[in-house]
C-alpha cells in the first residue's frame, strides 16, 4: 500500500516554542527586577537593614557600617551595600505605603490580564481578532514605555493595569 509522504514544518514548531519560552521567561524575570530591594540600604552616611523591603531612611535604626573605623573602611562597607540598580520598589517606596504593602504592581498587571481576557475576548468576537490585536499593540507598547516615566504611584499602578489588559489582547 502506498503512503503519502508528510512534511512537517519544524521551523514553525521551533518559532512557537521560542516565542512561548521568551514570553514566559520575560514575565518571570520582570517581576524579580520590579520587586528588588537590597537587604541593606545606605542613605547619605547611614546604612540600615530594610524591614519588609521598605526602602526609606531610618535614623533610629542601628548603622550597619561601623563608625569607629577609618574612612576607607567605612567607604568600602558602604560600597558593599550599594544597590545593583534602582527598581520601582525603591523609587515609589512600594512596601512602605498601606495599599502597596499588600499588593504588588505585578499582581495589578495580572489582574489587568484577567479582566482583559474576559473583555478583550468578547470584543474580539464582535470586532475581529486582528483589529483587537492591533489595538492592543497600539495601546500596550506606549503604555509599557511610558510606565517607566510615570510620576506617582497611582499612575504607575494604573499603567500596569492597562498593560495587563493589553497583554490579554495579544
From TrEMBL:
The region annotated as signal peptide is: 1-23
- Predominantly, its location class is membrane
A GO CC term?
A: membrane
* Cross-referenced InterPro entries: MFS_dom, MFS_sugar_transport-like, MFS_trans_sf, Sugar_transporter_CS
Location(s), subcellular: Membrane
Q: Name one Pfam family in it.
A: Sugar_tr
Which stretches make up the Major facilitator superfamily (MFS) profile domain? 30-170
* Transmembrane spans: 133-158
Q: How does it sit in the membrane?
A: Multi-pass membrane protein
Q: Which UniProt keywords apply?
A: Membrane, Signal, Transmembrane, Transmembrane helix
In alphabetical order, the GO MF annotations are:
transmembrane transporter activity
**Name recorded for this polypeptide:** Major facilitator superfamily (MFS) profile domain-containing protein
Q: What is the lineage of its organism?
A: Eukaryota, Metazoa, Ecdysozoa, Nematoda, Chromadorea
Tell me what gene encodes this.
Acey_s0004.g2148
